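Continuing the batch. This is chain 6 of the set; chains 1 through 5 are on the previous pages. Same settings as before, nothing changed between runs. Recording input and output for traceability.
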Amino acid sequence: MSDLSAPVLTLDGPSATGKGTVAAQVAKDCGWHLLDSGALYRAFAYIADQKGVAVHDDAAIRLLGNELDLKCSLGPGGAAVILWGDVTLSDQIRTESVAQRASYYAERPSVREALLQQQRSNRRLPGLVADGRDMGTRVFPDAKVKIFLTAAPEVRARRRYNQLNEKGINASLVAVEEAMRARDQRDEQREIAPMKAAADAVVIDTTQLGILEVVTKVKALLLCP
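Output for chain 6:
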């Protein structure tokens, strides 16, 4: 059950701008709840696959969205985990196959509508840090503080490339940047909830900033010590 009196900080922006890491650290430092909307979409894709829901079956998607009770929480390693009843979804939703399905689901209006209330239900006292692409524009338009993180595409591509290498995943830097630009275009041009900075958002360019520098800036805006 959401609490509309709970303040919300939204962190939006494209991938590899650092928003996931920043959101988790700010939530931890300020003692607030965390919503990783990307993890929520991956959890939905995973559960839909487990239940045999077809990606084109909008009626089944809406039914599943109404039935699910998903909560996001900070895991012991500092990353977001999704609580599905008594089941904790962590590594299960971090695979490449789940990520690909989640990316497809995220473009479908029926899925975005089904998960809208799931995301809002994470709003609880003492506050919520919400990480995504449309948190400040659609999910929490009344957020106390809205931030949009950005960075140069080539820098974001290098960050993602390094992340993949650290995981032992072979990748081409050129291919990573091309895929990232294509994802940005899809996110910015989709009909429902396109990725963009809210009119009242503070835009922070993380191209030349480290994570701790961004965390410090965000906490200052939030007035969190």
